[in-house]
Amino acid sequence: MAIKTAADGIITLKNVGKSYIQPNKQQISILDNISLELRRGEIVALLGPSGSGKSTLMRIIAGLNPPTTGEVLYRGRPLTGLNPGVAIVFQSFALYPWLTVLENVELGLKAKGIPSDLREPKALEMIDVIGLDGFENAYPKELSGGMRQRVGFARALAVEPELLCMDEPFSALDVLTAENLRIELLDLWLEKRIPTQSILIVTHGIEEAVILADRIIVLGRNPGRIRADFPVTLKHYRDRKSPHFQALVDRVYTILTNPDLDTVEPQSTISTPKASNAKYQALPSVRIGSIAGFLELLEDRSNRDLYRLGQELQLEVDDILPIVEAAKFMDLIELREGDIYLKPIAHQFIGGNIDFRKQIIRQQLLQHIRLVQQINNLCRSKQNNRVPEELILDLLGNHFSAHEAERQMKTAIDWGRYAELYSYDEPAGEIFIEEEEENRPLATANQSET
Ligand code: ADP
Ligand code: MG
């Protein structure tokens, strides 16, 4: 692979941050100190848990959203307004139902100010390249999902963007259609049949990233920041079964499932990430029952490899990750190099009856989950043992968006209720401790199998 030089740079982000002001005047940081360069000749995959700011980052690069701090350079000059070098393909296709395929594709050219007599030939050319010929006059509703997304591709590519941005472009398609389209796109790119010089794809599919990308960037959450940025040097077309491929998949999986492990490597430009100074863990909204089920499945299996386990259970990374994260926060499991191990306390949990399980969760929550600790302490410090949820939301509002704060509180209530630490009085909007909850025992090792 050719060595990339500064001259290959199309877009440069320097210490870009994005935050929103909440109605309560609090500033919520979505992206923090992002520095990176997108260069000619590379496909970059942007991975990260949901809510880590992937779409926001893409919109900043496209000039649809300005950053709050830092700078975006396009061809070395500060970007103001829409980025003329970027076209986007959306997950939702975003086609106009009342326009034909041809008219939908022409729309992008029109927006670019291409004269009308040039639009049709250009659009037809791209329609042909993207495998839509014969469908020029069809309407979106007459097309399958895969064909609709082809229209999305044709529309974006017709304007000959230097950088093609795609936000989870295959995730609304069935598996086979997605794989076909992915490989066809790769064909077009490798054979240089599309005029695009660089591709940025947002995805939550690890394999998709490893199939397509020359470079993988992993974002972390709360606030969104670059946690890893490394090249993929495997030759195309890549064999999913090869050890090298699998090793890369494992590596990405390990990064994603170890939120505490920051691995920004030399390849990444300019910045070193700040450690997250978040006061609260970002609790994934999963139920204790899911965690219990997951732990039980793990105990029954010799397979410790998280990625293969996900495949075996037919769970997507997006399904499994929140559960793993929650179990990790509660210190029930340990992750080592993509392998997952139950801690002794988790074995006790699995072996215990419902009361004992509740005790264990109670203990783990009080030891490891800050929000639960805080709610518990607040309730206990009040004479009537009741805390209004507004108070919790206000505290969380300093760190999360209003919507996310609500979700965090709901999760903490859910977990605390399971553990019988506190209860929730929904009509009153209060969290409270009942008398019998006040003196509940914590689990001790010799209490199992009761
Ligand atoms: P991803 O694409 O990685 O799932 P997003 O970029 O969509 O993440 O969102 C990142 C975070 O920014 C989310 O927590 C989301 O709620 C928040 N967010 C996005 N847009 C806004 C907005 N206009 N105001 C407040 N918060 C926002
Ligand atoms: Mg998104």
What characteristics describe this protein?
about 20% strand; binds magnesium ion; disordered C terminus; about 450 residues; alpha/beta; binds adenosine-5'-diphosphate; 16 helices; 2 domains; about 40% helix
Q: How does this structure look, described?
A:
With 450 residues, the chain is α/β, with parallel strands linked by helices. The protein has two domains: 6-256, P-loop containing nucleotide triphosphate hydrolases (Rossmann fold); 288-438, no CATH class. It has 16 helices and 15 strands. Strands 6-7-8-3-9-10 form a six-stranded mixed beta sheet, sandwiched between helices. Strands 2-1-4-5 form a four-stranded antiparallel beta sheet, with helices on one face. A three-stranded antiparallel beta sheet has the order 13-15-14. The longest helix has 17 residues, at 402-418. The radius of gyration is 25 Å and the shape is globular. The model is unreliable at 265-278 and 445-450 (pLDDT under 50). The site of adenosine-5'-diphosphate (ADP) has 13 residues, from helix 1 and helix 15. Residues 20, 30, 48, 50-56, 401, 403-404 line the site of adenosine-5'-diphosphate.
Net shape: globular
Residue-averaged pLDDT: 88
Helix content: 40-55%
Distance between the termini: 62 Å
CATH superfamily of the largest domain: P-loop containing nucleotide triphosphate hydrolases
Which CATH top level class of the largest domain fits?
Answer: Alpha Beta
- Order of neighbouring strands in the sheet with most strands: 6-7-8-3-9-10
Largest sheet, strands/sense/barrel: 6 strands, mixed
If you compute it from the alpha carbons, what radius of gyration comes out, rounded to the nearest whole angstrom?
A: 25 Å
The count of strands amounts to 15
Q: Could you please say which CATH topology of the largest domain applies here?
A: Rossmann fold
Low-pLDDT stretches: 265-278, 445-450
- Number of helical stretches of at least 4 residues: 16
DSSP strand content: 15-25%
Architecture of the largest domain, according to CATH?
A: 3-Layer(aba) Sandwich
Query: What structural class should be given to the helix and strand makeup?
Result: alpha/beta
The distinct ligands, each listed once, are: adenosine-5'-diphosphate, magnesium ion
Q: How many separate domains make up the residues?
A: 2
